[in-house]
Amino acid sequence: MKIPGLIYLFLAFLLFSSCSTEGDGCDKLVPIANLEDLYGCENTAYQMEIDLTEDHTIIRSQAEFEELVSGSCLPEIDFTEHNLVIGKKSLSNGLVSIDFKLINECDKDKFILYVTFTTGTFMNAPNVTYHALIPRLAENETLEVQIINKTRI
Q1: pLDDT of residue 25
Q2: Which domain holds residue 58?
C-alpha cells in the first residue's frame, strides 16, 4: 500500500515546515511578570505614570525607574533579572484588561512583546500605562512592541 508512504511524507513536510524562515513554527513563548504579581502593586494602568505618549521605553536600572516613573507603587525591582518595558496608550473606550505575550523569534536575538488592550463599550477614553517585567535583555538582543486593540461587546 502506498498510503503509509504518503503519511510519512506528510509528517516529514509538517516537521520541516514547522520552522520556516518567517519564524511561524519555532517561536518560543517567554515567561514574563508584572509589578502586581511580584511586588503587590495595584491598578498600575491608572496608578503609575511615565512621561510618554503612545510609546514605550525599556528601563534597565532602579535609578532610571525612580527618575522616569511616578505613582503609588515604586518597588525595588531586581534589574539583574529583569528589564521593565513600560508605555502609555490612549484608548477610545474604557479599559477591560491588558494582556501580554513575549515571543523569542526562532532563537534569534529578537523578541516581540504583544500587548493586547481589551476595551468595553464604556464611553470614557482613558490614557493608560502598561508594563511588563521581561527577562533581562543582552546587549545584542532587541525588543519590538506590537499593540493589539480588541473590543469586547
Answers
A1: 65
A2: 25-151
Report if residue 15 sits inside a domain.
Answer: no
Torsion of CA 122, 128, 134, 140, to 10 degrees: 120
139: CB partners within 8 A, 6+ apart: none
Provide CB contacts within 8 A for 128, sequence distance 6+.
45, 46, 88, 89, 91, 95, 98, 117
Query: Looking at the 3D structure of the chain, how many domains does it have?
Result: 1
Span 58-93, pLDDT tens digits: 999 999 999 999 999 999 999 999 999 999 999 988
Cα R_g (the chain), whole angstroms:
20
pLDDT tens, residue by residue, 122-140: 778 889 999 999 999 999 9
pTM equals 0.80
Q: Which of 109, 101, 105 is nearest to 146 (CA)?
A: 101
In a domain, 106, yes or no: yes
* Residue 7: inside a domain: no
Assess if residue 138 is contained within a domain.
yes
Q: Which amino acid is at 63?
A: A
